[in-house]
Amino acid sequence: MRHILLINQLKDLATKKDSSLMMALTLKEQGYETYLLFEEDFHIYNHGPDILRVFDFKASFKKNSFYLEKFVPENPKSITLEKGDILHMRIDPPFDKKYLSYLWMLKSLQRSGIRVINDPVGIMAHNEKLYAYESKHSLPSYVGMSGDHLKDFALTLKKDGYTHFIFKPLELFQGIGVEKVSLDNPSLKEIFENATDKFKGPMVAQPFLKDIKDGEIRTIYYKGKELGTILKTPPAGEFLANIAQGASYKQVKLTPLQKSICEEVCKEIGPKGVDFIAFDILGDYLQEVNITCPGLLVEVSEAVGKNLALEIINLI
């Protein structure tokens, strides 16, 4: 059994805390034949064997830590994909035309007996934000491009006591494009429609919850099993609970309701080949179901004191 991780170019990754590189190093330490496949080398053939250029690597963890000390690709070689190989889809969003093309290509490889984690069809079928909004445990949400319809939604939210919107793109990550705007802002329509123009598509609008100051949950599941959970807390005066933008984190325990929300999702999409899921939960509201390239594996491992990549490998 060989493991091949399809990843972004190394220059685009935060090497010392990248979940994919942590997974690769852990696989290698466990004695598995493991390679990196950079996206520029990913291709398929419609006739003949699929031959790919992959890289071995030298890497190590920091002492008594799950952060990486070093990670250096080396020794490129050509391999022929074989039935039983496992290909990890680890390309970061945005979920754009290029990303969708990769999923179509990965789906084609499955016909040759290549196992892909997460399943490309499962990823295609479930937008990380929209799928979360289908849950009864989600915030009231508007998704669209019309500033006029947004203003109608704002009137409804005011009646419920909300004061601000959070705008965010459907397909991005790490807080990119997220904006907080007052429901009473006279330029509300223009701000929203400018955002749809900038990000070239529908935007999400949700009520801002003041509870964000107390933090947002990130919990990692594999095959329906909770592996570890942290609380991400924004810096004082900020509203983004994003570790890449300065949020702190610590281990926490899910409430029974939060756990049931996650388990319900796992039962629905697990049978579709979506085994690796990272949930974002604010209070008791499901915010995102991260399945494209679930992250924070290093940080959650650090918080709970065990290598969660190893837990995932054992479940695979």
What's this model, at a glance?
This protein is an alpha+beta fold and 316 residues long. It contains 9 helices and 15 strands.
Description:
The structure is a single chain. This protein is α+β, with helices and mostly antiparallel strands. The chain has three domains: 2-117, 3-Layer(aba) Sandwich (Rossmann fold); 140-208, ATP-grasp fold, A domain (Dna Ligase, domain 1, 2-Layer Sandwich), CATH 3.30.1490; 211-315, ATP-grasp fold, B domain (D-amino Acid Aminotransferase, Chain A, domain 1), CATH 3.30.470.20. The chain contains nine helices and 15 strands. It has helices spanning 19-29, 97-110, 120-125, 130-133, 147-159, 188-199, 256-269, 297-304, 308-315; strands at 2-7, 33-38, 51-61, 68-80, 86-90, 115-117, 142-144, 164-169, 179-182, 203-207, 216-222, 225-233, 248-251, 276-282, 285-290. The strands form four sheets. Strands 13-12-11-14-15 form a five-stranded antiparallel β-sheet. Strand 5 (86-90), helix 2 (97-110) and strand 6 (115-117) form a beta-alpha-beta unit. The radius of gyration is 20 Å and the shape is globular. The model has no long low-confidence stretch (mean pLDDT 94).
